[in-house]
Design goal:
- There is one protein chain.
- This protein is α/β, with parallel strands linked by helices.
- A six-stranded mixed sheet has the order 3-4-2-1-5-6. A six-stranded mixed sheet has the order 7-10-11-12-9-8. It has a six-stranded parallel sheet with strand order 15-14-16-17-13-18, with helices on both faces.
- α12 packs parallel to α13, α13 packs across α15 and α17 crosses α18.
Length: about 550
Amino acid sequence: MPLPPAPAKRAALLNTAGFDTAPAKSRSTRNTTPRHKEQIAEEHTPTPTRETAAPREKREPLPEYKGERKAAPVRAATPKKAKHTGPAKLFVLDTNVLMHDPMCLFRFEEHDVFLPMIVLEELDGHKKGMTEVARNARQTSRSLDALVASHNADIITGIKLDGTGHIEVGGRLFFQTEPLDFTLPSSLPQGKADNQILGVVEALRIKHAPREVVLVSKDINMRVKARALGLAAEDYQNDKTLEDGDLLYSGALALPEDFWTKHAKSVESWQSGSSTYYSLSGPLVPDLHINQFVYYESAGEPSLYARVTEIRGKTVVLKTLKDFTHLKNAVWGVTTRNREQNFAMNLLTDPEIDFVTLTGTAGTGKTLMALAAGLTQVLDDRRYTEIIMTRATVSVGDDIGFLPGTEEEKMGPWMGALDDNLEVLAKTETSAGEWGRAATNDLIRSRIKIKSLNFMRGRTFLNKYLIIDEAQNLTPKQMKTLITRAGPGTKIICMGNLAQIDTPYLTEGSSGLTYAVDRFKGWPHGGHITLARGERSRLADFASEVL
């Protein structure tokens, strides 16, 4: 019999008669039509039978969660790699990997892990203290103890890594239980720990040939030496939010010049308050996220600046923005000077947005806009009770030692950016005179609290406006600790420049700021924007480009 024609509707809307006609063929023809996000998600479920096909219509309408369901496949698909099909590898871990991520033992899937004896010695030497490295070393030792205690078998045969509940791991853990014979070049000192680990890798490569033995280390020089000796070496990649080829979500998208002719065939618009809403469909909808900004700029045509507020299937709802470049919409006397700053100010002043991330080079106005929006919402709108400002205390040069005074006095030298921006904001109030400006400064100072990151654990902020400056120097764990401090009515703003990371063991791909931007992408109550153009001065802009 001839094949039935390809369905013109979505598979979720077909009746059961369509399945009765040709159940096997209808599923194959569905792949030839443009697929929706719901169809992509449903492909991971079992093939629908006659009994399970009918109730699918009941699961279709979930309008309030469309934005979150849309963002989930993007985040899950990015870090996935092709599943390894060859023989299991043997990974030899360097000490810095264990101290960087205590859970790294359970990140190697079906492959085996080997720990040289010198690694255990170095772990023991770093376990004392209150630093992050010392805590990770102690946590790694506890994990090793739990793995050894979970099996009564001989250590020589290897310990199953799934013994403590990590069922996704299929490999084994091996310890160095006997001396290994190896020969290294005489130019390498034999007593150094790094060279001993290299010798263990060389001995294992010969002993287990042709099995692949790989050294995993966060030390670049260690990996270079290993490759110079003909050994396989890799960096520990699991801590990276973005791969080298990925681009960080910018929060804004330029619409093509033919947008109105090709991408918006059926446009509906309506007015609500001072904003205009557009409902449209087109091929660009699958690439959009909730709270992403879109803009249309073309010579001779009116410009469009809008924010994505709702996504339903192939239909998107855009909301026009408030123009903060105009003096009548100035926030604490501050007006925005470019397109991205206007996007950021719309996020900072929206009460429905609980989490805002701002990235950009030096002089793009991140701190000034965050403070201006905070002062307006604390003193004028009474939306929040006070502003709390904190930052990572990582110095650019040598540390100056201990600082005297209270917590706020100790944080004072780190908050020079706060004083500079408050000086700018105080000058915007020109009608009150000298006494009025002094009273305003005292009022502003009374509503701004400076806190240290060291004492954030266990706190809960109610109706606060929390600014986290220099967030690029925070690890993902520290970022999680800070964001989870938010109580009811609290708004958090994370700002930073990913090109100015001062923490020794963080990169642009593993920074806590990158982690937060990627994980909050598409959340209905969170927004991000990358500020592109500096507005500090022509000297600062030129220095950012050429230096």
